[in-house]
Amino acid sequence: MKITVDQNKCIGCGRCSEICANTFRLNTQGKAEVISTEKSDCAIQAADECPMEAIFIEE
Ligand code: SF4
Fold it and tell me: What is the mean predicted confidence (pLDDT) over 15-38?
């Protein structure tokens, strides 16, 4: 599963890491980064719920 976060769109709200802590965390710049590309339903949910639509997932 390919998961990317557009750093220019991310506002660092932390929603994705709350929903899916195994896949996302906030980095020292306060932006979300991908820590695992394991397939997971919560990563898809996080992409759906990101307020900036900054998360992109390709199967
Ligand atoms: S939910 Fe979206 S805007 Fe919020 S931290 Fe994650 S990627 Fe960034």
Answer: 97
